[in-house]
């Protein structure tokens, strides 16, 4: 495999974060993490990220706010990072809300790890 792709996991639950991280590392992804919306923006500014797994209910700035901020970014490379929303209460949102915010895809919690790997691959294979 060529250089490994970098995935940013924005998740405030340590358990979900560590599980997701392990599964993606087994797939040879390089993993960066953020426990809140402020850290998401820092990571995005400082690293080349190939995709983001965005929990919608993170502190400081919600996943939706972060997504909108990323989509409005002046650097096109940052503005176009694929964002996969991860949430336990998708019922609070419609697909229209996701599209309007700029979310590429959504995965429900509890995470189906096969689906997770498949979805991440879909956005990182060039």
TrEMBL record:
Q: Which UniProt keywords apply?
A: Phosphoprotein, Two-component regulatory system
Alphabetized PANTHER family for the sequence: HYBRID SIGNAL TRANSDUCTION HISTIDINE KINASE J
Give the matching SMART domains: REC (SM00448)
InterPro entries per record: CheY-like_superfamily (IPR011006), Sig_transdc_resp-reg_receiver (IPR001789)
> What is the protein's name according to its record?
Response regulator
Q: Which PROSITE patterns match?
A: RESPONSE_REGULATORY
**Modification 4-aspartylphosphate, positions:** 55
Q: Which taxonomic lineage is given here?
A: Bacteria, Pseudomonadati, Bacteroidota, Cytophagia, Cytophagales
Taxonomic source organism: Pontibacter ruber
Q: Which residues form the Response regulatory domain?
A: 6-124
Give yes or no: UniProt keyword Phosphoprotein: yes
Q: Does the keyword Phosphoprotein apply?
A: yes
């Amino acid at each position: 495999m060529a250089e490994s792709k970098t995935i940013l996991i924005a998740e405030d639950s340590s358990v979900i974060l560590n599980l997701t991280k392990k599964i993606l590392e087994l797939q040879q992804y390089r993993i960066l993490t953020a426990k809140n919306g402020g850290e998401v923006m820092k990571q995005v500014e400082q690293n080349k990220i190939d995709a983001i797994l965005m929990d919608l209910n993170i502190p400081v700035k919600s996943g939706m706010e972060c997504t909108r901020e990323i989509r409005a970014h002046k650097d096109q490379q940052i503005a176009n990072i694929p964002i996969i929303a991860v949430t336990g209460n998708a019922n609070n949102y419609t697909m229209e809300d996701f599209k309007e915010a700029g979310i590429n895809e959504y995965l429900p919690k509890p995470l189906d790890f096969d689906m997770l790997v498949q979805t991440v691959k879909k956005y990182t294979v060039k």
